Amino acid sequence: MSDDTEIEIETPAPRARRWKRRTLITVTACALLALVVAFAIRTPSPVGYWDSAEGQDRFRAAYAEAFADMPSPAESIDVRTDFGIVRVYRFAGTGHTSAPLVLLPGRASASPMWADNLPSLLKIADVYTIDLLGEPGMSIQERPITSDEEQAVWLHQTLAALPEKEYHLVGVSIGGWTAVNLALHDPTGIATLTLVDPVYVFADMPLGTILRSLPASLPWLPKSWRDSFNSYTAGGAPVEDVPVADMIEAGMQHYTLRLPQPTRITEKQLGALNLPVLAIIASDSVMHDAQAATQTARRALPQGTVHHYPGASHAVNGERPEQIATDIANLVTPHS
Fold first, then answer.
1. Three state DSSP letters for the chain
2. Bridge partners, 50 (sequence order)
3. Which of 81, 116, 251, 288 could form a disulfide with 157 if both were Cys (CB 3.0 to 4.6 A apart)?
């Protein structure tokens, strides 16, 4: 080839150059926004914490108002564990079941969320409610919880401090996952499990729900955003001026969780649960594909009783308290 050969170099069209420039600007802006968000929500704390004394006071006031709808507890117990102090309430029941029920609440919630359930559950047995460690409530996390195993340790230590040798464990939402997680790591003393629309147990959480939860997790956004998400999970029910909903919203705004992401329970693990399990799946739950969750529970649980509640949302414990109590009574009576 001659040195005089001309080589034509294709020059990008102006439109292509503009498109590339806009794309670069957009990507850069998104990256900067991500950095700003990461910087804003960063925290050096290894344990859950309140954003301020005023924020904690607001939550405690909402907690007290919601707790006023509960029966009076016979006892309030603070149990010291390796990871912090766990608040437990005992309510005296009128039923003849010897082993008590132990209730585990959902995420960003606490004992008062069981207000609608206690009257009917107390007809079965004594009831203990627990404020989950690392969540907003009266429990106080003191050391980091970094794994599923450590989640099981603090709960096992809490239950071991109670006077009874056996108990019927009942969990709603993330409380259901917490109950299964304990049974997989140390089933000592667990007579039965009741899982009320549990998350990360029978099906994955839908992407749409995850995306809708993100704005609600940012404390500087308006209260209406958190109320909107809480209403979404409750099937569109209004949540303004509802004591339990006010408590949950206050916890979401003012408390920062420092807990590991729960590991999705596998079918193999479900098959290893060698105890009676009641699974209650809400048909209109936005926390999973209810049909897929029901199928998984029926397929995987060796000793499972699975109830699909038509027309119920993820807030099923407050929507169907009598039905849930009847199903729990049918489960626990032969095993007490």
1. CCCCCCCCCCCCCHHHHHHHHHHHHHHHHHHHHHHHHHHHHCCCCCCCEECCHHHHHHHHHHHHHHHCCCCCCCEEEEEEECCEEEEEEEECCCCCCCCCEEEECCCCCCHHHHCCCHHHHCCCCCEEEECCCCCCCCCEECCCCCCHHHHHHHHHHHHHCCCCCCEEEEEECHHHHHHHHHHHHCCCCEEEEEEECCCCCCCCCCHHHHHHHHHHCCCCCCHHHHHHHHHHHCCCCCCCCCHHHHHHHHHHHHEECCCCCCCCCCHHHHHCCCCCEEEEEECCCCCCCHHHHHHHHHHHCCCEEEEEECCCCCCHHHHCHHHHHHHHHHHHHHHC
2. 255
3. 81
Residue with tokens 């990008």: 12
Tokens of 264: 């999705």
pLDDT tens digit string along 181-191?
Answer: 999 999 999 99
At residue 197, φ and ψ (nearest 5 deg) are: 40, 60
User: What are the boundaries of each domain within the chain?
Assistant: 49-335
Q: Are 79 and 157 in contact (CB under 8 A)?
A: yes
Does domain 49-335 fall into CATH 3.90.550.10? no
What does the block give as tokens for 274?
């060698």
State the pLDDT at residue 43.
55
